[in-house]
């Protein structure tokens, strides 16, 4: 088996194992549990992708696209159809340049976060690390649009997402 398959199996197994502990008794406790669980899944996906060997040098457009494809497949289960949408979307937004900055709006990075500092929720290195920007951007798309295809459709009809 290749490393990608092994990492995917390891992640699927980790995500399938229930978290033990005291059941939540209030809405805020349930919310905290969900956030912790989401954070755990993010870390597991980040770790699984880190175990893979990229054929590209970090910081290049090809590396960023490779990382996005791996992370979105492992973390969200989004395959080739969704991957094509994210390639199209972020090619239009930033050209996959992790240092891209929109002088008029202040949007920053690969996903063109507005303001850019919102990406700090994924890491303090958000200004310089394409991986941090990609993780934030995919999380944003999941929360706001549900999928890259939906975000891409919105972009095509409104010229923003």
Summary keywords:
161 residues; mainly alpha; 2 domains; 6 helices; 59% helix; 0% strand
Give an overview of the whole structure.
With 161 residues, this protein is mainly alpha-helical. It folds into two domains: 1-53; 57-161, no CATH class. 59% of the residues lie in helices and 0% in strands. The chain contains six helices and no strands. The protein has helices at residues 3-16, 27-50, 61-76, 80-94, 130-144, 148-158. Helix 1 (3-16) packs antiparallel against helix 2 (27-50) and helix 3 (61-76) packs across helix 4. It is globular.
Brief sketch in words of this structure:
With 161 residues, the protein is mainly α. The protein has helices at 3-16, 27-50, 61-76, 80-94, 130-144, 148-158.
Q: What is the helix tally?
A: 6
Q: Shape, please?
A: globular
Q: How many separate domains?
A: 2
Q: What is the rounded distance between the termini?
A: 38 Å
Please count the beta strands (DSSP E, at least 2 residues each).
0
- Estimated share of beta-strand residues: under 5%
Unreliable parts: 9-33
Reading the helices and strands in chain order gives HHHHHH
Q: What structural class do you assign from the helix and strand content?
A: mainly alpha
Rg over alpha carbons: 16 Å
Average pLDDT reading: 84
Helix content: 55-70%
């Amino acid at each position: 088996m290749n490393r990608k398959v092994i990492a995917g199996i390891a992640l699927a197994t980790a995500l399938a194992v229930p978290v033990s502990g005291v059941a939540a008794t209030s809405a805020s406790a349930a919310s905290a549990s969900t956030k912790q669980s989401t954070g755990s899944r993010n870390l597991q996906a980040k770790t699984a992708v880190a175990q893979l060997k990229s054929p590209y040098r970090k910081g290049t457009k090809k590396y960023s696209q490779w990382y996005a494809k791996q992370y979105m497949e492992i973390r969200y289960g989004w395959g080739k159809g969704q991957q094509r949408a994210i390639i199209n979307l972020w090619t239009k937004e930033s050209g996959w340049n992790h240092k891209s900055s929109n002088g008029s709006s202040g949007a920053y990075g690969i996903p063109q976060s507005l303001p850019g500092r919102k990406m700090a929720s994924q890491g303090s290195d958000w200004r310089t690390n394409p991986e941090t920007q990609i993780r934030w951007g995919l999380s944003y798309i999941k929360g706001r649009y549900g999928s890259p295809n939906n975000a891409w459709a919105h972009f095509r009809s409104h010229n923003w997402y």
